[in-house]
Design brief:
174 residues; mainly alpha; 2 domains; extended
């Protein structure tokens, strides 16, 4: 019975927990401490601290730790982890299926051409936020960026390959 409760609870958390792991914490705390009473507030705080220290997304780590603590077994940890990931997986499968249906639609393709520029702009704005006066004047990094950007654009290189090239140039020249 605990396994079914874990699955339903963490499936619900995965389905309605928008904004990433830290945004999910209040929902996890509400479901785990207040609704189901599997942990005390102090135990939940300890699990959040452990989840932050271990590698991986905090929401998934918290689900794993809570599942193990609530059930006392690895099966509980496994079920809670799968349940919190499953809604995102299902939603992405459905989105991919819908996108494949509209692949030949010219209006749909036009929208995605515009969205490509929007994504580039968002990434560029995030990069500009991280730029400091010291790093902005680093001409070597700018040269590496321009060379890799041109090579990617002109020769249609794979993104992983461009990362390797940029990293190699960075290690050699910076």
């Amino acid at each position: 019975m605990i396994y079914l409760q874990l699955f339903i609870t963490f499936f619900k958390i995965g389905l309605f927990g928008f904004g990433g792991g830290y945004a999910m914490l209040s929902l996890i705390q509400h479901e785990i401490v207040e609704v189901n009473g599997w942990l005390t507030t102090s135990e939940f705080t300890d699990i959040v601290a452990i989840s932050q220290m271990t590698p991986g997304p905090i929401g998934i780590n918290a689900a794993t730790f809570v599942g193990y603590t609530a059930s006392g077994s690895v099966w509980g940890a496994t079920i809670a982890t799968i349940a919190v990931c499953l809604p995102s997986f299902i939603i992405m499968l459905l989105i991919c299926k819908v996108l494949s249906l509209f692949r030949a639609n010219p209006y749909f393709n036009a929208i995605f051409k515009v969205l490509r520029f929007v994504v580039v702009g968002l990434i560029a704005s995030a990069a500009l936020i991280l730029v400091t006066p010291e790093s902005f004047l680093d001409y070597k990094s700018v040269i590496i960026f321009v060379v890799v950007f041109f090579a990617t654009w002109k020769f249609k290189l794979h993104p992983i390959l461009t990362l390797i090239i940029a990293g190699t140039f960075g290690a050699l020249f910076l």
